[in-house]
Design brief:
It is a single chain. About 40% of the residues lie in helices and about 20% in strands. With about 200 residues, it is an alpha/beta fold. A hairpin with a 2-residue loop joins β3 and β4.
Length: about 200
């Protein structure tokens, strides 16, 4: 069983904000797979079903971003999901809007939801997708307001395209596994930088 966890903050006031990139990706994936977030447990909203003959859970932790691990860790324990079958989607300030990155492991890079998952699982060795939002103009003093704010129209256009590519990646991840999804990036079937595509 694969667990795909999209991170964000729950509530209408947070919809469309930079910190909710993970929510948006799993919501789009759920639509594609005709799944509904109809279950509430493990401090999260989730859907459980089959896609491409694989068992899959899509999860939105409802703990607020910084405590995301309090939802991810217990659902993994209950359903006995191996760390190899977890992938987490979150926002990333260090990546420009219109770009995203898939990685098999690594540090949190300062992303507090990701760090909480690392802390509660006791490992950095799980897959993640980072959706770029760019950095605030005046540095760290503006970070909280920035991640809880909404992207400009231009940034939103690029972010939407990056999210679409990430969703394509997740379809392949479910159907064929992580390596096949990474191969789709290396062969150019999926684009990690939609800005370059737009510039051509």
């Amino acid at each position: 069983m694969k667990l795909i966890a999209g991170l964000g903050n729950y509530g209408a006031e947070y919809e469309g904000t930079r910190h909710n990139m993970g929510f948006e990706v799993v919501e789009e994936l759920a639509k594609d797979l005709d799944l509904q977030f109809d279950r509430n447990d493990f401090k999260g909203a989730f859907c459980k079903g089959q896609a491409y003959g694989q068992d899959v859970i899509l999860l939105k932790p409802l703990t607020y971003m910084n405590l995301s691990g309090q939802s991810v860790a217990p659902i993994m324990k209950f359903y006995k999901i191996p760390i190899a079958d977890l992938i987490v989607i979150c926002d990333d300030l260090a990546i420009k809007p219109g770009t995203w990155r898939a990685r098999s492991k690594g540090s949190s890079g300062g992303q507090k939801g990701l760090q909480n998952i690392i802390d509660l699982l006791g490992t950095e060795d799980f897959k993640r997708i980072r959706i770029g939002t760019g950095e605030p103009a005046h540095g760290k003093s503006e970070v909280v307001d920035y991640v809880l704010g909404k992207p400009s129209n231009d940034d939103r256009r690029f972010i939407d395209k990056a999210q679409d590519e990430a969703v394509k990646f997740l379809h392949i991840f479910i159907r064929d596994g992580y390596q096949k999804a990474m191969d789709a990036i290396s062969t150019g079937i999926i684009k990690e930088d939609v800005r370059q595509v737009d510039a051509k």
